[in-house]
Each structure stands twice: as structure tokens, then as C-alpha cells.
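Model: You mentioned two targets. I'll fold them one after the other.
Researcher: Yes, keep them separate.
Model: Target one:
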Amino acid sequence: MNKDVNIVWAECQKVLRDNLTSSVYAMWFAPIRALSYEHDTLVLQVKSQFIVDYIEENYLPLLSKVLYRFFGPQTQLEYSVQVDSHTDAAVNIPSDVSHTVVPQMLAQRSELREDPEFDSQLNASYTFDSFVEGEPNKLARTAGMAIAKQPGKNIFNPLFIYGGSGVGKTHLANAIGNEVKRLMPQKRVLYVTANTFQLQYQDAAAHNHIPDFLLFYQTIDVLIVDDIQYIMGKRATQDTFFHIFNYLQQSQKQIILTSDKAPKDLHDLEERLLSRFKWGLAAEMTKPDYALRKNILLKKMYRDGVKLPEPIVEFIAANVTENVRDLEGVLASLLVYSTLMNKEIDMDLAREVVGRIVELKPREVDLEQISNAVCEAYNVSFTSLMERNRQKEVAKVRQICMYLAKQMTRMSNIEIGQYYHRTHATVIHAVDSMSDELRTNVELGQQLTRIRQSLIG
């Protein structure tokens, strides 16, 4: 060995420090000094026989792997134990480390990495294809796609995704993991919730398996921890996660974290851990806006083979505003209600189902506001709209007003017809005509979306 034994032992200590809690390392390994390395035998100086016995009983597998890595598989280990503090007299005690034990243990670890039965715990249905992109999640999704192509070798390490409940954090985190597995099947990807990590740590601590626990997590290429905020206040868990984080980050392994809080709002978290959460990219995912909510509904309808009239889709998107889970719940409930009640999904059923899941807000628009917005969009005067004007372009604008009025207010067909000096049958015809045209006229749909957004924000 060309390197000085003290330099090599310092490298060993660094790995030990990363694999052990700070208190364990400080008590058992920090005081150890390397005396010599000759004829494939490493001599370590320790203070007492008790320390030798404790290390051999509890940390020999970890120590063996470290020595194999830095000194080689042929390494024999001896402890030099001081027996007289006045004369510096010492006795050498051989370790159980041998040239056969270490390679065998390393081979077991290698087999673990190549285990085809390794379960990534990923949700296979959460993919980029099923994830709908919009302004509220664009940054996080773009970073996620870049990570999936080069996990661990990008500027987004760690990727810290945060936002309220139901905005798609878990979906996106799983999508990254699934894409990595698709592109690089040999990568070990693991999805775990912070609560599960906490339980695993407690079990490992109770059975004195902390070294094995750490070594397992250090074999992971892409570690995804969901709801990391749940380790707040759990000091021992934070300390262990800190060492895992350090090792993976320094080894260019990818770390992805999700949280319902921004890093700055994670209180009762060790500062050294919090600072590392800020090393990469913190990407916020906000509540879906109207355009994203509508696209999510359309995507899920296509996936499930469901067809809903355009007014109902827009009604749901306008009223179910908090998160994606509520949108999914409304769509599923509509299908169940329609099946059980054996009736077509209409606006009345949509109002009933949506009202059971979210509180329907009173409409903040009236017929005059709708009429003015449509007239402005199509450059038609309000006076022409209200007269008995039968010009084609005016009649079309009037139909749009009736369609939006039916969708955005609680007024009946008779009330809407009276406002525009028409019959309720004219309103029904207008709504049906617009619904049919919207199925094929993309430009019209985009125009109506803009009008709606101008009215409700």
C-alpha cells in the first residue's frame, strides 16, 4: 500500500462516520488510531478490551466492509490494547476479520444490489403520461423529467417538491422513479414515506440493526421520501437520515423529497439537515388553476372511457378548485350515481354530486356581466344583443350568452329566456347547439374559456 496508514484509516473513519449515528461514532470509533499496516495486517490502537469486545460484537460487519474497501480483501486486523497507562505496555488482540469473511459479506451485498425481486414500492399508475402539466406544476415536472434522464448527475439534487395536499406531489415523485426504472432498469429506486422510514428506523434500533439499516439505504440509486415533514421533532431519525443523505449525495445518487411545507417552514428540524434540503431545487406545486383542472378532467375521462357534456366538465372545473383528489372524487361519484340511479349525467346531477364533495360557492356573476363579457369578446353591442336582431353573428353571440348563463348561474331556462326576450325552448336549443359545436370547434372552446376566466378569475 502506497498511502500512509493514517491517511487510509482517516478515509475509513469518514465512511464509518457517514454510516453511524454521531454519538455511536464519537464513542466507539473516533478515539481509535492506526498504528501500522504491515504484511497485510492492520493494527488499530484502542483504549480497552471492553471497546474491542463491543466493536467485534456489534459493528464487525460494517468495519469489515470498510477495511475491505480501503485496505483490500487480504487484510487481517489486530487491536493494540493498552494494559498499563504508565508504561504504555500493550497487547495485540486479533480480530475475527479475515480474508474470507470480508469478500463473502461484500458478495452478499452485491447480490442484494442485483436482486431482481427488489421492490421499489412505486405506484406503477403514476407516470409522466398520466400526469397533466399546467402552470402550477410546470417547474417541478420539468425538473423531474431532467432528473429521470440523469439521476444524481444534475443540478436538482435534492429535488424538494412542496405544496398543499392533493396537488400531485406523490404522483410526480413516483413518475420520476418509474421513468428512471424504464430508462435504466438496473437502477435501484426506492419510494418510501417518512412515516415508514421512521418505523423502519425504530425497528432497526430496537434490534441493534442500525448498521444494516444504513447499508441498505446506501445501496439505493434514487431515494424518494414522501411527506418528509413527518420527521420533524424526531431527532434520532433525523440524525440517521442525515448520514444517509450525505452518503447518497456525495455518491451522486438522486434524492427526491416531498413535503406539504416549504423548506423554510420546516420547524423543529436540525439545521444541518435543513440546509441540505436547500442544496438543489425547491419546486412548489400550487393548487390547479381552471385550465389545469379542466385538462385533468378530460385526461381522466379519456382514460376511463367516460363522456361528459362540455358544460358539465366546465362546471366541475369551475367549482372543484382545491386539489386533484376532489376532481377524481367528483368524476367517480358521478359514474356511481349515474349507474345506481340509472340516469344520464346532466347538470342537475352534477350540481348534486359536486355539492356533496365541495361547498358550492354562490355565483358572483349575473346575466348582465355575462352578456357584457361576451359582447366585448365578439365586438357586438349590448343593445344589438337585446333587440330582436336576427343577424347571424348577433344570434350566435346570444346563443353563447345563453350557454354560459345556463352553466354559470342557477337561473332556469325560463328566467334566462325572459332576460333575453326569448322563450325557454330557444334557450334549450342554444345550449344544445353550443354543446354540439364545442365537441369539434377547438377555437370556440378556447374563446369561451377566456371569457369564463375573465368573469370568475
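Model: Target two:
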Amino acid sequence: MTILDTARKLLGEGPICDHCMGRQFAKLSTGLGNHERGAAIKLALAMQGDLERKEGDGTLLAQLAPCSAYARKSLGMEGQDEPCWVCGNIFTKLDSWAARVADALSEYEFNTFLIGTKLTGLLAENEEIVWAGSGTLYAEPIKTELNREVGKRVEKLTGKRANLTRPEVVALLNLEEERIDLEVNSIFIKGRYRKLVRGIPQTRWPCRECGGAGCPHCGYKGKMYEESVDELIKPAVVRAAGAEDTAFHGAGREDIDARMLGDGRPFIVEALRPRRRRIDLSELARSINEHAAGKIEVTGLGFATAGAVERLKETRVDKVYRMTVAFNTPVTEEKLKSSLGILGGATVKQRTPTRVLHRRADLERIRQVRLAELESMDAAGNSAVITVRCEGGLYVKELVSGDSGRTMPSLTGLLGIPAEVKELDVIKVDSLEE
């Protein structure tokens, strides 16, 4: 079937605009807009129709008359355009949609954008009918043309550029509800935090009784703890970015009763639906540290990507802990050093600790202890300060207590007497590979 035969078949369904005609042949004769391609095809058909009329057959011309401005202009015919049966003349509204997108984007800082389209059910159905009826193999979807044509106009209106892979904001043309829906991509800010006090969790902890709604168990606050590292960082980020909220991503986490010392734990804070993207990170760090003085501090802030969050979560790095350990009965320094020597370098089999089974799957983990050393101990042998370097993901409290045999080997098992962590500090989290 020739191009003109296919075009003639399309015209047989009813009035069709230049865009919808040309779009059925979008993969042919590149360098043209679909409206130019469609107009050229209609003009060729109009000429064919005039030839048929002069030879006594006006069938094609009768099909062209109600739907082709080019046919009428070329042949001196009069009359008004009828709506395109495929798109309902939506391509006459490209400038209007572009203006609405530009207006919606005016509240946001951005350099790159992308246009998307949500079709009405009728448009999607009409497109399927066109493709099934015409049998054309060279068409492109109506969404593609709408996105491209509106995008070109938005580029001119805003001076920004369209980006098909990593746009900072996506404007969705919701044709069903006649509105613009914006998807504003997050800003990601990486750094390290030090937690200087005990009793603060890393992230917001909704009340386990009410799920955050507020109840007598949580004092109607909706959360188990008054503040967190996440919430101490959040206000300054929200102000700086004009964001609606933040999401916090840490490289592992420390217990609530543990401090995070040394050079801190890597984290990424995600600013959700930011209105501003140009942020002074030095000023942001100052603001966070001033707000959270004495509780946490952040260092080394820099911009990150969405992919960095996944790497942060998936990469397991070594950690160094300092623990104050109490013994049920006095232990000698020699016995303690001998036990730590065995524990250092051990391969540990560890089932999910009893204390976190209510929120963690009951799994067995295999982790390595790199080093276990004695720093100091009291003269009576009732307590000691020890340092442990181990693979990320190892529960070090249970490495000491044994958790009733769920962690093996353990310091308790090696000593033959119960041992328990009384104070815990994380003093180093190794750097992630960039």
C-alpha cells in the first residue's frame, strides 16, 4: 500500500488534522514536523482529487472537502474546518498548554525539564483505531508529538532546556482533567553527621501503637522520641530549598543509646519538591549545627545524585566501636585479653537479635570481626572498655552478650560468664567508595 493509499484510507474515517495525518508517517522523511508532513500529503491528495474531478470522478475530492484546508486553498474551495476525529484539534492548543506549563514552573528554580502527557480515554482509543485501520508501520504515538511540540514552546518561554534522561522537573499534561501536574525531582545533599548525645534515634520513629496518628502511648505526639538526627537536620534544609519535606538516608545506623563520634557517619538528606536548587552548603551546615548545637553536627556537605542513595544503602563498610562492658562476676585481664584475641578475626553467625525481632526479619547473618582489643579495665575486674572493628551489619551488643546463643561466638561464651554492654560509641565508619 502506498503512502497516498494509506492517507486516503485515513481520510475515509473523517476529518483529520495535518498533525495526525503526518504523525502516521513520522519515521519517513526526517527533518519535517508532522504538520508539514501531513500538509504535504494532503496537498498531494488534493492534486490527485483535482485530477480525478477533471477526469469526471470526484470521489477523493468529496472526502477531502470537509477536512483539508490545504485542499480547499489549493482548489479554490470554501468552508470551515471540522474538528479532527483523532485528536479533537488538540494541536491548536499547543501554545496554551505551553503557557500553562511555564506558569506552573515559575515558582521553581530549575535548569532542565521534561514534558509528559496523560491522554484521555477517547484519545487513546482513537489512536488505536487509527493504527489498526491504517496499518501504517511508520507512526509515532500522539504523546510523543505533544511532548515534543509543547516542550519546544516551553523552552522558548522559559529559556530552560528539555532533558529526556535526568530532568529536574517533569510537567505532566493531564488532558483528562485539564490541568498541569508537576513532578519536582529531589535535591540530594550528602555529608557526615556526628551524634554527640545518647537517646536520639537516627530517623523519625512513629509510635508503634498508633502509627503516627497520636495516642495516649505516645502522649498524642505520634512518635516515640521527641527528636532525631533526621529531624534536627530537616528544618534548615526545608528553609534553604523551599522544600515540602525531607527524607533521610544513612549508611547504616547506630542504636538510640549510642553516640556517633570520630569523623561521623555518611548520610544523604533528600529535599522533597524543592522550590530552590541553588543552595549555599556552607551556610546550610552552619544553620544545622547552630540549630542542633550540642546534639549533632554535620560536616563535608556536598551535592549528590539519586544513585548515590542506593550505593549508600547497599555498600557495607567496616565500623569501629568503643564499648564499656560490665561482667556478671570479676574477670582477669589475662582471661579477657585471651577471649578478645579469639573474637578478633572470628567469623560470626548471628541471628536477628531478640531486641529487634519485632521490627526485623528473623535471619542468620555471617559477619567478620576484624579486631577486638582491650583499652582499659577497672582494678576489680568488674568492667572494661574494649574496641571492636567489624564488618558493617554486625550487632555488637549481641557480640558481647551472646543473646542466649543467637550470636556465636560471643564474648560471654568465650569468657564463660555473662557480659553486657553498658555504654556504646561508634568511633569510625569507613568511607564509601565513590
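Researcher: Noted. Anything on target two?
Model: The domain at 187-314 is CATH 3.30.70.2510 (Alpha-Beta Plaits).
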